[in-house]
Amino acid sequence: MPLPNVVLGVGGGIAAYKACELLRLFTESGHGVTVVPTASALHFVGEPTWAALSGRPVATEVWERVHEVPHVRLGRHADLVVVAPATADLLAKAAHGLADDLLTNTLLTATCPVVFAPAMHTEMWENAATQENVATLRRRGLYVIEPAVGRLTGADTGKGRLPDPSAIFEYCRSLLARGTAEPDLAGLHVVVSAGGTREPIDPVRFIGNRSSGKQGFALAGTAAARGARVTLVAANTSLADPAGVDVVRVSTTAELRTAVRAAARDADVVVMAAAVADFRPREAAEAKIKKADDNSAPEIRLVQNPHVLRELGHSRSRPGQTVVGFAAETGDAQGTWLEHGRAKLAKYGVDLLIVNEVGVDLTFGADHSAAVVIGADGSEEPVADGPKERLADVIWDRVLKVRTPND
C-alpha cells in the first residue's frame, strides 16, 4: 500500500531552511512529497535544493505545466498539506481565501488535512490580526500549531520560533495515521504529565527512576494533533517539545504536583503518565556527602511523597473532569502485574488506568509499549506491543468514550 502524498508548502521566512529537515523526514519514511515554495521562500532556499531532497520537480508557478492544472491538481491529490514555515502573511491569505500564487491556490483546493507551522517574531504572532486569522483557520477545521519559544532572528528570543522539524513530522504522522481530518479533541483542554521526578539527596545526587517521558510526550503530541489544547508537565526529560504543546518543566514531585494541580483547574482531561517518586529524603544535604574513611555509609531517612494521582482522582478540579492514570507494575508473591493494576483502579478513583509491565528492557526508555487499558466500568482492553503513539491514540479514543458514553 503506497504511503500518503504530502504537499510541503514553504513560506518566505528565515526558518525555511528548517523545512529541509522536515522534507528529509517525510521522504526517508517513504512519503512522496511535492514542495511548493513561495517566491519569497526561494530567496532563502533555492529550487535545486528542494528538488534534490524530494526527488521530484518543484512546483513554483501557476503558469508552469498549465495543461496539468497544478493549482487544482496538487490540492486534490494530496493526503496532507503542511506549510512550514507559515508566515503571518500566509496565515492572513489563507484565512481570507486569497489565492495569488500556487501555494495559496493549493490551500483553497485541498480537501485533506492542512497543517500550518507558524514562524515569525513574537510581536507578529501576538498581533491581534494574526491571532484572529489563526482563530478563523482553526474554526474551519485547519490545524495551526502553536509556535515554540526560543531564539528568533538576530538576538531576539520569544514565542514565534518554528517547532522542531521532528515534532512537526510526528504531529503530521499522527494525523495521517488516523486517516481523518476531524479534530475530535477540539475544544478540550488536556493536561499530561511525563518523565520521572527526582528527589535530591544532596546537590549532586538524587532518588529517581528510569522513565524517559516518551509515552507522556506521545500522548501530548497526539492530543495536539487531534485538536486539543495541551499542557505538558515534563519532569527531567531530554525530549524535544511536542509541536503545538505548552510545556512546563519541573524536577521534584512537589514541583510536579503544584504544576499539575494549577493546570488542572480548567482542564477537561488530566493524564498522569509521569513516574512520580514514592519517597523522598526527609532532608537533603546542603553540601555533597563525602565518603567516610571507615567505609561507613550515611543513613538517608525517607518520607512518603503525596500521591498526586489519587488526589486528582478523588478530588476533581471541575465537574465532568476525566482523570487517567498509569501504573507501572511487576508481579510478586501477592499477585501478577495486572492484578496489582486492577487493585489500584478503585483505590485511585480514576476513570481509566493504563497498566504496564515494567522491568529490564520493558517499557522504560523504549519507543514501543504494550499495556492493558482498564476502565472504571470494569472493561479491559489489551493493547499489543507497538509504537507509543498508537497506544496514545487508543487512550484518547477511550477518553472520548468515557466522556460521551452514549455515542
Automatic annotation (TrEMBL):
UniProt record similarity statement: In the C-terminal section; belongs to the PPC synthetase family. In the N-terminal section; belongs to the HFCD (homo-oligomeric flavin containing Cys decarboxylase) superfamily.
Domain Flavoprotein: 5-173
Residues covered by the DNA/pantothenate metabolism flavoprotein C-terminal domain: 185-401
GO molecular function: FMN binding; metal ion binding; phosphopantothenate--cysteine ligase activity; phosphopantothenoylcysteine decarboxylase activity
Binding site for CTP: D278, K288, F326, K344
NCBIfam families membership: coaBC_dfp (TIGR00521)
The protein's required cofactors: Mg(2+); FMN
Key words of the record: Decarboxylase, Flavoprotein, FMN, Ligase, Lyase, Magnesium, Metal-binding, Multifunctional enzyme
PANTHER family according to UniProt: HOMO-OLIGOMERIC FLAVIN CONTAINING CYS DECARBOXYLASE FAMILY, PHOSPHOPANTOTHENOYLCYSTEINE DECARBOXYLASE
Cofactor note: Binds 1 FMN per subunit.
Reactions the enzyme catalyzes: N-[(R)-4-phosphopantothenoyl]-L-cysteine + H(+) = (R)-4'-phosphopantetheine + CO2; (R)-4'-phosphopantothenate + L-cysteine + CTP = N-[(R)-4-phosphopantothenoyl]-L-cysteine + CMP + diphosphate + H(+)
Top-level lineage group: Bacteria
Protein name per Swiss-Prot or TrEMBL: Coenzyme A biosynthesis bifunctional protein CoaBC
